[in-house]
Design brief:
Elements lengths: L2 E3 L9 H17 L5 E3 L2 H23 L2 E9 L6 E12 L3 E3 L5 H7 L2 H7 L1
Parallel strand pairs: 1-2
Antiparallel strand pairs: 3-4, 4-5
Length: 121
């Protein structure tokens, strides 16, 4: 079982706020594998907010063509001649600069935007 823990204190004004933070901790516990527990802290909140921000920015990039294909050559090791190309995606983020797929594809997959990103290329 995976467990998310949030300890109630004065910063929580409603039960829903406390449950939300426990849910964030549970999500992190599940992403770490089986049989784990995670105690909610402010770093988890900041990470969750960053994911939401990246998702919002991804939607904007999809709508406005913010992605660009990069073609990486595939070479034959015996003689170094190119035998083909692999298409890779990059995101021209307006504030963070050029982002590689490892920096945004996990969010695209989790949010269900991966197919839209694929078509936006």
């Amino acid at each position: 079982a995976s467990i998310g823990i949030a300890i109630g204190d004065m910063r929580y004004h409603t039960t829903d706020e406390l449950l939300h933070d426990a849910d964030v901790a549970l999500y992190r516990a599940k992403s770490g594998g089986r049989s784990r527990f995670v105690l909610f802290d402010e770093t988890l909140q900041l990470a969750a907010l960053d994911v939401l921000e990246v998702e919002r920015e991804l939607r904007t990039a999809i709508a406005h063509g913010g992605f660009e294909p990069y073609f990486q050559p595939l070479v034959r090791l015996s003689d170094g001649h190119p035998i083909g190309y692999e298409a890779l995606i990059r995101w021209h983020h307006p504030e963070r600069g050029l982002l590689g797929p490892d920096q945004f594809l996990p969010v695209a997959e989790e949010s269900g935007l991966i197919e839209a990103v694929d078509w936006a290329m």
